[in-house]
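User: Predict the complex.
Assistant: Input components as received:
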Amino acid sequence: MRRFLLSAFLSSAVPAMAQENIIQYVKPITGTQRMGHTYPGATVPFGMVQLSPETDTIPYEMNGKYNPDVYKYCAGYQYEDKTIVGFSHTHFSGTGHSDLGDFLIMPTVGRLQLNPGTADHPESGYRSSFSHSTEVAEPAYYKVKLEDDNILAELTASNRVGFHQYTFPGTGQAHIILDMMSGIYNYDNKNVWTFIRVENDTLITGFRQTNGWARTRIEYFAMVFSKPFVQYGQQNNAKDVYKGFWRKFDQSKNFPEMAGRQIRAYFDFNTAPGEKIKIKLALSPVSTEGALKNLREEIPGWDFEQVKRDGQALWTKELNKIHIESGSKEEKENFYTAMYHAFINPTTYMDVDGQYRGLDMNIHTANGYTNYTTFSLWDTYRALHPLFNVIQPKRNADMIRSMLSHYEQSAQHMLPIWAHYANENWCMIGYHSVSVIADAIMKGNAPFDVNKALDACVTTARHRSYDGLEYYIDRGYIPEDKNGSSVSKVLEYAYDDWCIAQVAKKLGRSDIYEEFIKRSGNYKNVYDSNTGFMRPKLNDGSFKASFDALQTHDQGFIEGNAWNYSLYVPHNPDEMITMMGGKKQFTAHLDSLFTMELPDKYFAETEDITRDGIIGNYVHGNEPSHHVAYLYNWTGQPWKTQERVRMILKKMYHPGPDGLGGNDDCGQMSAWYIFTTLGFYPVCPGADQYSLGSPAIDKATLQLENGKTFVVDVKNQSDKNVYVQKVQLNGVPLNRLYITHADIMNGGTLTFYMGAKPRKG
Amino acid sequence: MRRFLLSAFLSSAVPAMAQENIIQYVKPITGTQRMGHTYPGATVPFGMVQLSPETDTIPYEMNGKYNPDVYKYCAGYQYEDKTIVGFSHTHFSGTGHSDLGDFLIMPTVGRLQLNPGTADHPESGYRSSFSHSTEVAEPAYYKVKLEDDNILAELTASNRVGFHQYTFPGTGQAHIILDMMSGIYNYDNKNVWTFIRVENDTLITGFRQTNGWARTRIEYFAMVFSKPFVQYGQQNNAKDVYKGFWRKFDQSKNFPEMAGRQIRAYFDFNTAPGEKIKIKLALSPVSTEGALKNLREEIPGWDFEQVKRDGQALWTKELNKIHIESGSKEEKENFYTAMYHAFINPTTYMDVDGQYRGLDMNIHTANGYTNYTTFSLWDTYRALHPLFNVIQPKRNADMIRSMLSHYEQSAQHMLPIWAHYANENWCMIGYHSVSVIADAIMKGNAPFDVNKALDACVTTARHRSYDGLEYYIDRGYIPEDKNGSSVSKVLEYAYDDWCIAQVAKKLGRSDIYEEFIKRSGNYKNVYDSNTGFMRPKLNDGSFKASFDALQTHDQGFIEGNAWNYSLYVPHNPDEMITMMGGKKQFTAHLDSLFTMELPDKYFAETEDITRDGIIGNYVHGNEPSHHVAYLYNWTGQPWKTQERVRMILKKMYHPGPDGLGGNDDCGQMSAWYIFTTLGFYPVCPGADQYSLGSPAIDKATLQLENGKTFVVDVKNQSDKNVYVQKVQLNGVPLNRLYITHADIMNGGTLTFYMGAKPRKG
């Protein structure tokens, strides 16, 4: 009883008490080294602004060829780097391809330098050396000393406004550089057009229009200084820009209308020693007028500390949705850092008045919902959106509304594949919007027109010219010689089709059900019973002759080899297991996967995971195997699931820069961590079941949006006690290896009793 | 009495009766040969769409250098040409520099060709031969036979929608080409970005964004076909365009989302013999959504003939504002063609809902007025806007509101100099918005905040970094060695400043009056009494030593030589005459101007007028001398004004392709014709007086917007009887050489009695 009261006290009093506690466990620096592709800068949950340092801005292309080194800079920051180029306002978190890096700002003193210089010789440009010893990265706050010029840089943000605070030495030569050329995954012609207006001596507006991963992207800004500049100017590397009668003016200095493709502007100030120059820069997908609206509504004043406090309070509120009790600081840091990374993307993509830019480049208004962008759906349909259905159901429904708006605005009549900033970028495979929509509908989190949503799914899945679908529809498989990565595509289409079938069944639309439940069996068409692997077929119907089941490249798969990908039938593990020789043979396959020695040569060409992202031949740093450790639940050996998931948690996640074994992929890697730590995982989104694993905390309290509380109470767990001995749901023994979505949403307690030995049979 | 009744009958019955009669006198082909720079295509009065053929689309640059031949194609059409490349939707009328030519459409049959081909070998591309014998150019209607493919092309337009009607032969290979690369004054990088969406099998939307005369211009369209296409495709010359994951698709055929810098799209049809394919293409400065709104509101149906009738009815209404009686068909053709050309620019620049793009690239709404663009103010302040104050006062006030909006949106806080499509292009000199505003205020046509308007004028005139103004303000002249064309600038600034002073005086703002009336005397600072000419001074205060008063280039003037430009003190002819040695000497100067033989060498480099645009050394093809023939009224020899203006009317204006002796300049040349034909001219806009000349018609009836009628009744005029014997206003002898604006607006009759001999003294 006493314990209950304490628990009740905790859960209601959490907001005040936990504020300090929870924030401290978030380490935004996690994953900034090597392959995590996270960024350390300031953002609020699902915020439009991600204000973060760029440690290099190397070009996407060198001499017309792709520059593989650029890959490191997907998020603009690499922990090993010694210099900072500046602070820009948009970043992806954890992606494996990139864009953005808009509106780079850098403070300098002394002689004005308008080129960034090189990492080896930061003094040759405006960049500066820095040291991690002066660096602080917290949710909604980032601080670093720019050593070359002795400037303290601090950043915070609201949803749509980045707030900079630069503490200068005393000088008559303080500069703020606004580099419109800089960008992530940049190249000479990436800027289609840029435009700056100096509206008065504190207000600057403009836009940057790019052609990159997003083909036609335009982002607007409005930026104010806390004090008037003394003078300003630009270096306009007017490549291919028509000068016309603008030549009448000396546009290099104090000329308020700048436009072109290669502009770097600067603003000069005098500063007293220790004087702070503050900058607020608001974004808008709509217009500079929209950016100004955002700026004035979100941060009307100049209180940096208050904005930081507000940002951290937002984080505290979101992080408190799951309160964990655990002995280890490291586990808390892992957990709340994962929560942090899970709550960054998708990002808000509308102005404070609800206006946003659509795929048709027209301005639309989001009526009654928040419009989001940055949908890395091949990654996030697996665990991130299911996690949202549990602890962010309102946002998840809004994300689906945003996806349906995308569909309505798409001239191709397609739901998003990988979408960002009013663009489809067509990255990766499948049509996993369908999974996200089905998961929400099947779990009852669908405050939108479900029949229209189903129509959007069906139209998308029937789009014959999309990525091998014509073959898939006509023949049930995709010839590898017609369309590469064919097996991955068939397997994922089959799963997505199952999702559509589930929704159709629920809505009583039997024609659609029949069509898509049939398609969902297409995975069988690429199974080669001779080798025991999924295997690419050719146009003539034969299996591709040369075939290396360990090789990731050119074998019919993408971001995975046949060993891993062959296990991808999340909607029907039982049938898959039967097809692959029954439970015993399948278990042996799984065991080998986790224990075999993968020759180095198979790792050599893998670009998006670190060596640590692999256990045996099990690849966790990429997504296709994220459900695999749970498959032992279907082979009668759940203790192996329990053992494996604990191993993966331990091996793959650490707090600290190198703490992620692969791209965080907009939160998918983190969402896996959260579910698995809680002891259950959505092996098949679109079904309402969560497969049980081995909870890695002592207790977790989920504050649900419906006002209920779901507690995972774990008795006797430890690094050794990873095996589940028994499970109770609300005190009643649970005689199944899963819980349902309703079990969670109804509130209650799931109690795990743990021990050091597997409980077999 | 009987005559009075007939006249009353005519003026009220004119709309019905004159409809047929007036339209027939308009010859849009006038000025399409050589230097007129007019276009023959379809437009409605002040319409957003100017749908007209391009007879060539030669590049603005060749091998990185300006291509002087492009100058001929300012309006896209040259009468001598033998081929038509296609029909685009935006054209300037009569300008001396260019841009536009948006969304070129061309119908073809047979083998698909996506390059325009050459004029010498039209069969090498999609262009076609044509002949003037099949060409019909009327207000709001254009027709021509495209001979190569046996297609009859017909064009008409509403304000914002171009309507094409193509009559095809029977074929399974009919094509409509939409060339997004094509443009007037085009070059490789002029397209910053273009974007097309095939929304369904009849609807296409998109935009074209360019960097040219307008630095940052974007124009949207929505286009519908009268029947569905069979298939479509694109040639995307993807120069510098990032392809990314769009490579998944075959984008060349039936791919509905096109973007890049070098796109030519095509749409294929089957046609029965004589089948018409119709296209409606709506423009918008705001968005494709705006274009669709415009399309649906302005032309919901498909009745080409009705749209043509509606367009011609709009013309009839405008043309009827001045009803002339004259014996000669040629005079009527001259007059109504001039009226037509005067009523094309400025053009409507807002959607049907009042939204338009501002100079800040934000979307604004014109509340309670029509927003206009294309302000060729150095030309049009002289006679076109004064003409509007008489017969288009409402539109003129709206044009000024548009100019004030431009000012409010200008980061430089400048009224327009030469503005088009949400851009300032800074062409030519002065700040003649000020004159247009002053003229309206002084004539009582100012339904806007006059004090704010004065502030805008003052801020503009104090803009020190604009085109030599800092010198002008500080020293009263501009050193030619610091800023070229210095004398022209000083003279025009001085006049503009006088305009500001008049408004300030009227509004009782004496500080401003004092400042600007003083500045208005600056013309004296560039008068060289030794030579008797205005003459450039250098930074050291001395006159430039080498000086050729006949030469137009590099002598301190622009589009005029010292002989012509020295007469430019419109606000104080009396003082100017005194300064230049008194009436006798001044009269001798004027006489010489009109009668001297100008050596050919002085004409060789003049690009924007024809040899016919010169009488002696008097240049009518450019604007600075447009008031000069009227100056005899100040020397006591008004009969010479009467003689000269009749000579100019005869020599410089003819119906027919070569009917204009220089660029029509957005209607300024035509407005000069209209005023002068009526017998009076605004020598000094901003003053409310019109200087009397020699009316060249028998009678003119001006239908004023205030409901009154002003009649110019001319007794006994003929080609020989050009001399005014006496003048009566409402039957009372007029003992002055001018009438006032009030004289006109009060209604009444101005009666000229003409004779064959000068009436001296």
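Chain A touches chain B through 48 residues (CB under 8 Å).
Let me know if you want any component modeled separately.
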